Amino acid sequence: MLLQHLINGLSIGSIYALIAMGYNMVYGILELLNFAHGDVYAVGCFAALGLLTMGVHPALAIMAGIIVGFVINLFVEKLAYRPVRYSGRVTPTITAVGIAYIMRNAILKIWGPETFAFDIGVRGSNLQFGGIIIGTLQIYILLIAVSCMIGITLYLKKTKTGQGIIAISQSIPTAALMGVPVNRTISIVYGIGGALGVIGGILFCIYYDSIFIGIGFALGTIKAWMASIIGGVGSLKGAVMGAIMLGLMESMVSGYVSTLYKDAIVWLLLIAFVLIKPQGLFPAQVAEKI
Amino acid sequence: MNKRLAFLVMLIAVTLFGVSVASAADTIHFAVVGPMTGDSAGQGIQMKAGAQLAVDEINAKGGVNGKKMTFEVADDMATPNQAVIVAQKLSLDKKILFVVGHNNSSCSIAALPMWEKTGVPVISPSNTNPTLTRLGHKNYFRVVVNDDIMVNQVVKLAVKDLQVKKPALVWENSDYGKGMKDVALKALPALGVSLVGEESYVPGVDRDYSAIVTKFKGLGADGVLFLGDYTGAALLAKQAKNLNYKAKIVGASSIAHPKLIEIGGPAVEGVVSVTSFDPNDLRPKQAAFIKKYDSINKEKPGEWGAHAYDIVYLVKAAMEAGATDRASLIQKLQGGKSFDGVTGNIKFDKYGDVPDKKAFVITVKNGSFVSYKTK
Amino acid sequence: MIFSTQDLTVKYGQITALRDLSIILESGELTTLLGANGAGKTTLLKTISGLLKPTKGCITYQGVNIEGLQPDRIIKMGIAHCPEGRKALPRQTVYENLKMGAYIRNDSGVEKDIEYFFERFPRLAERRDQLAGHLSGGEQQMLVICRALMSKPKILLLDEPSMGLAPLVVKEVFEIIRQIHEEGTTILLVEQNAKMALKIADKGYILEVGKIVAVDDAQSLLKSKAVQESYLGG
User: Fold this and answer.
1) CA torsion, points B220, B224, B228, B230, in degrees to nearest 10?
2) With an 8 Å Cβ cutoff, are C72 and A176 in contact?
3) Which range marks the domain in which residue A37 is found?
4) Model confidence pTM above 0.80
5) Which of B242, B275, B308 is the last residue of a domain?
6) Which of B207, C23, C135, C171 has the fewest CB atoms within 10 Å distance of its CB?
């Protein structure tokens, strides 16, 4: 059973990881607690749902959802964050909360509050090893999470825009003096963050065959934030490792202690982490910190 | 000067309230209060649809004592503090004669004192927490059998009909779920079986049941009593199927909703539920109602839609028997006169309960609910 | 005349940092701008490179008005700004820092130019893959100057390159600046170390509380009694 619990935790963790990566991209650049992250990508996921129910091919619907996440975040950045970028930390946090509510209400208005089935026609099969069951879906999710992480790392390290993003995260004026188009580059970061969120969100929906408004805040923003605290805020590796740790913790506590106290215990562990390792388990290795 | 001021105030008061009194006089206003957002929103939406159907029918036939009925919808988000906020706002609205709601026991527990202050009759289509009618609120009624009765039937169904030997229990972490769990914990030993595992989840938040499934599988539980919402039940069934866990899933009325099948798909085949309304009831009155509701809402009613429908007609009957305001409506409802609705015979006892109402058992077969023959 | 400002006024809210400031840079010359802390030297450089917007006046570069343009436009036109306090990008390697300097370039010569600077400054070459944050102050200053040159600027704006460096290192840095000047780059050097700056400069401006109070060729300023008293420590 221990192995099964580990595998369950790993699968949930990989989904959290994708969501946390997008979140940490934005945090790494602007140190903004982006409360809107989850609700923005939720819109992308619901857009995919809308297309699916209209009979659009799942691959196209998912691509469209990812693009919606990307584009919405571009607008959100331009309208809600750029004007307050240099107004300290509290103001953008508040505009972020405002955006979160706008997105949530947009979803409520268009799709309503219910839980919907999310069926893209992919039925993962189960692989059995002794008593242990691994869903192929779980393996795909883990692979997607890891390849997204590698992809983003390469993008940051090897492309000009990626290097510009890293420069902006260290000093906006210095980056500007080297010719990095600050506004455009920050937009791209938000766009990628939104797109990654949608990928994570859609995997979440596929994994649980269902979609509801809570994938944004309760299961998105909050889990991404918890994962970042555990792993290391602003670090990609930290986001991934923290998310997987979070998944394992939830699964272990549910399996061996009690589901009733799961949240309380996980939060206690989180507080312990903050006290013992305020930088997180994998504090942004300066070089890879975005 | 003061006299003129007083006159002005009076004038404003008359203009403001006079108008509303005038409009209230020829219309009967009430409110439907339930979760219109969140995981149990499907239930709130049914309440709205059921009430709407009743109101439309009544108005088409000339209304109640010549007055048309109309209602407003308020969202308590299935959360107690929001319920109190809604109650605070609506109970001060003098034209609201009664309330259909709340859907969640926890919301009623929190909001009833507020409703009681202004004497608004609150009639719930779905509150099943046994203690609710024992809190001494004179304005509170429910048309649903309470969990004491319901859960005892769930347990009996699992043990006697489905031959579950090692039951495990999942309850949603709310007043509602906890109330049901307490009943089940008492009922099981009485039937000579003991629980092998007990887990809970946070409704509207938790999406992962794989840890619970893995645990139950390890414990060898051959049946799961699911005392919570339909979304949770559907997800549990799906994840159980993914992990090759084949225990029977038995639930209370809160899972007997079309959404269970929509979300759960093939995984919920064979899930059995006790409910106070059977959407496949073939008796003429019930079948006609179900057909009409289905044609409008594109889904068959569950107990929420059916109960809300009954409540509106119940109030109509009380008004035709002489109720005119909040106080007299409460009196008429307490009067103990029996009302024959689509969900059965409604006759309140002194607590506001319907002890004589019968429950049904349904199961999922080939993607829809069918009646289940109990032994 | 390659560059000039006319009646440039810059305000931070209510405070006027620069008042009607006019300077001229001749092509290929090294001009130094001297002044005490708070005189407005850094403000001027930030305004030229587009980080700040002037409230009045204009900046002309090769006959074109450039005031108010975004920084990335200005560096593309050939004005590179080396900010004060050695703003190396600490979490990127020496190599990546140099490459960032060529951010606006799309030609194929970037790698060759990086190798050129590595040859010229072997100490940077040794630390090629180290994070810039781990370099000593002098090395960082060297890196930041090379980084600015990577954009192949026509005008280099240097903001207090000697600040906080040991005297020996300061000498070294000034030697580098002199060489860049010799190679033909127009330089505007902002300094508190007036003596060293004037020694390598062609022309000098003296700035006090946002206003130009003196302008002359560097040799004359070095000899001027007033300048000696105020800026050259008697």
Assistant:
1) 110
2) yes
3) 13-213
4) no
5) B275
6) C171
